[in-house]
Specification:
Elements lengths: L8 H20 L14 H14 L5 H13 L5
Helix pairs in contact: 2-3
Length: about 80
Amino acid sequence: MGGLPMQNPSSSVISLQTQKGQEVSSGTTDTKPKKKKICCACPDTKKLRDECVVEHGEAACEKWIEAHRKCLRAEGFNV
């Protein structure tokens, strides 16, 4: 019994199925996480900023404008 080492046939089948599944899925799905659109990011600070600007004008709302910019930067936007 000193011949070739025996390989577990079930593990070969599993690895082939896994490789085949990866090949199929890699062509049809996007692996990068989807990035939010800037219009949909930070809805809370956006709402406060917009309400303040409508009621008081842009000059009076620098605090809310900067808070919204800070939130957008935290989400990865360059603003």
